[in-house]
Amino acid sequence: MKLCVFDFDSTLMDGETIDILASLAGCEEEVSRITKAAMAGELDFFESLTRRVAFLKGVDASKAKERCANLPFIEGATEIIKELKAKDYKVVVFSGGFSIGTAPAREKLGFDVDFSNKLHEKDGVLTGLVGGEMMYSDSKGVMLSKLQSILGISIENTIAVGDGANDASMFAYAAKKIAFCAKPKLKELANIIIDTKDLREIGKYI
Predict the structure, then answer these.
(1) Pairing of strands 113-122, 125-132
(2) Looking at domain 2-205, does it have CATH number 1.25.40.10?
(3) What gap in Å lies between CA 199 and CA 76, rounded to an integer?
(4) Catalytic residues
């Protein structure tokens, strides 16, 4: 058995879920600015996440779910996941974003499981609070190590794919560290760099 772990936002999904949701709150510009700084490694991920989600307080939860059920994917997403699964890879998504985006994507793209965060809602609106498995800068690395232990998969049989600073912790547990259209900080840690915005390019390395 082999394992390939993808980041979600700006890796499988074409954009950042939090920025898309921020448009519902009329604060896309402010949130996008924080997102860019976080993905460049200029801000602590936990602090940046909680700051950004706070802007969503009062957003209609049903509208948020509707928006996240129709997120755009990067070219080649469906094809590369099919190719990986045909070669006996378990395909997993780790997202510092939200389950309202990753769960519908799992149904459409066919990856095996997703680990992400959950936006808190009460009385049909978002409260501006968030919790979950991917809240910290090292969360993805911690979860990947646990998955490897549970599934009995070695670092040598693991691929990690991401684009931002909060994906760096995965790379310590993957033999193939793929920076996909990535920020400079992540490229420094990668041993495979893909700058063509087509996920089928990963097929050259599996």
Answers:
(1) antiparallel
(2) no
(3) 5
(4) 7, 9
pTM over 0.90: yes
pLDDT tens digits for range 176-202: 999 999 999 999 999 999 999 999 999
Residue 86: count other Cβ atoms within 10 Å of its Cβ: 9
Q: Do 74 and 196 contact (CB within 8 A), yes or no?
A: no
Q: What is the pLDDT of residue 40?
A: 84
SS3 (DSSP) at 164: coil
- Return d(Cα 94, Cα 117) in angstroms, integer: 9
Which residues, at least 6 apart from 189, have a Cβ–Cβ distance to it below 8 Å? 168, 171, 177, 179
Sorted by where each begins, the domain ranges of the chain are 2-205
- Residue 140 to residues 34, 93, 116, Cα–Cα distance (Å): 20, 10, 10
Q: Which of 30-34, 71-75, 120-124 has the lowest mean pLDDT?
A: 30-34
